[in-house]
Amino acid sequence: MSVIKSICKAIDTVNDYLGRVFSVLVLGILGVILIEVFMRRLLSRPQIWTQELMIAIFGCYIVLICAYGFQKKAFVAVDVFFNMLPKAYQYLLHMITYILFLVPMVVMIIPRTWSFFLKAYTTGEKSYSVWAEPTWPVKLCFFVGFLLLGIQSVSEILKQLIGFVETLQEEKASPAGKKEVRK
pTM of the predicted model, to two decimals? Predict the structure, then answer.
């Protein structure tokens, strides 16, 4: 069990660090917005490239911090019935839903994002705007983001497995469970 915990800790440490690093992209978006406002409002010279750059940076930002958000439980969840279940069933339900829904999606998307990146890079693909910037950096971010999400998925599934096993062990050790009556 300690080997599994150390694997989870290593994955979590890497994604925590990268999530903090990638969160700085928000400052890039802010910088581009400030440039656009300055150029448009004060100099009356709007720029073509700013809107497209904002969209590209924001797309990279969202996908690159996805694993960090998953690790920190930052996504919206409706836990109305889930919270009423015993702890062991909560762990089991998380494992089942991750394996049934998240893992197949990530396994399907990772090779596709790699091929999108590779095609864009090798062909010198450019966007369809007047600015015509290369598309491969954004497509590389999509690949890296989904790869990190896949790796974080492994950690989250293993953590749910650990929680499930430890909860069952606690229940075996204490047949009355956590509802012991004190006099």
Answer: 0.88
pLDDT tens string 74-101: 988 778 888 899 999 999 999 999 999 9
Q: Which residues contact 144 (CB under 8 A, 6 or more apart)?
A: 64
Residue identified by tokens 């599994």 is 4
Q: Which residues of 51-77 are buried (b: 16+ CB within 10 A; e: fewer)?
A: ebbbebbebbbebbbbbbebbeeeeee
Distance from C-alpha of 56 to C-alpha of 59, rounded to nearest angstrom: 5
Nearest to 59 by CA among 117, 124, 145: 145
CA angle 74, 115, 135 (to 5 degrees): 75
Which secondary structure element, helix H or strand E, spans residue 91, and what is its range?
A: helix 87-97
